[in-house]
Fold this protein.
Amino acid sequence: MKSVDFVIITGLSGAGKTQAMKALEDLHFFCIDNLPPALLRPLLELHGQGPKERQYAIAIDVRVREYFTDLRRSLEWLESSGHSYHLIFLDCSDTVLIKRFSETRRLHPLVKGQSKSESIAENISAERRLLAEAREMANVVIDTTDLRPMDLRGRINEIYLGSPLQDSLMVDVFSFGYKYGAPIDADIVFDVRFIPNPFYVDNLRPLTGEEEVVADYVLQFPITQLFLDKFPRLVQDLLPNYAKEGKARLTIGIGCTGGQHRSVAITLELVRRLKKLGINAGARHRELE
């Protein structure tokens, strides 16, 4: 969808507003929780003073239910002011909401204004009535009954990026030398010491894998090409599953003995091939840095 200035998240308590806001924060929205609709005008004044490209995500829930009568008026004013907005309503089945509140042992927000003797189910029914108008005004209604937090995040990504969640996942590929210690922060580690070592070629020894002559030497071997043909495709196939588990960055360590020749050349070529597959990848070199 086209870019919007304001995304407003509302819906039933326990339906996932916090997770939705986290997803929007990852998309570089400026997030504000529990804002009364009546304060949209002052926020718009601040918006005019800030960067023009800044986008806001605002969560409004039943805790400010006394302001929900202002929501339609505020949205109409927002639109008439020339600022685009998108209203998302998060819904969920009563059964799942009751389970979530029971597991977290949190009080329903309506308890403060009603008798604590009322059941969670009664509180949820009351909240549905209060939010009925907001649901009707929503541009998108997302039912989170069967969604994990990462599924909801993926849905948000698809709405505002127009692409699957894995498309926003960063693949960080770095070279390292085993003689200086194996990395502890890598999700995948691959040992490329099966490739002949340029260290034993006199004119290549003082150089690094960043030099074209070293890269040509490392890449010339059939076993190197076999690895480079298969490994990027494997990463591509795995990315959707890593994204579903909530990873924003996949870190891949490529190791050789000293981290100067083979791992450097392989890292650079691997990143080049990942980018060719449309994957957001970057290279760095631990020992050279």
Observations:
- Residues 6-163 form a domain with the Rossmann fold fold (CATH 3.40.50.300).
